[in-house]
Amino acid sequence: MKKRPEFISIGIITKAHGIKGEVLVSSLTDNPEQFETLKHLFITRQDGNRSEISIQQVRGKNDRFIIKISGIDNRNQAESLQKCLIEKRLEDVEDLPVDEYYIFDLIDLNVYTTDFQLLGRIKDVLSLSANDIYVVQGESKEYLIPAIKSIIKKIDLKKEIVLIEPIEGLLDL
What we know:
The protein starts with 6 loop residues before the first strand and ends in a 9-residue tail after the last strand. The protein is mainly β. 5% of the residues lie in helices and 46% in strands. The longest helix has 5 residues, at 75-79.
């Protein structure tokens, strides 16, 4: 089984907010409600340096939040955090519902049709409004596979495979 990351990005600081050191954070997760209960997180700067932070206050809704970080007390300090990632340890991440997966778990899985034809490996996942699309790189062709139940028949992370039942014409595009 492939190695999982130690940290997972859940937000990105987009800009400073006000003059008291608050920052505006855009959520990178399907569960933005988790921001409301977080107290200790990590911030990763663009140079890769990571440090633990304490959250004093969170307010906002949907996928944008205003966060007050302990020790960040003025606009200049807040501006220095622009484009930094907000992360948490993977071990602290709640379990996903059945049939939901982290993108990093899907990357590099082998994709087979139900008649065991190897199509290739997942090289990317596109998150679109209707559903995700798995970008599968074959030997000489790239496939775009919709991540919907009628096509994705099985995902086995231990065996590192995805089994699909392609609809007519899907693999001809």
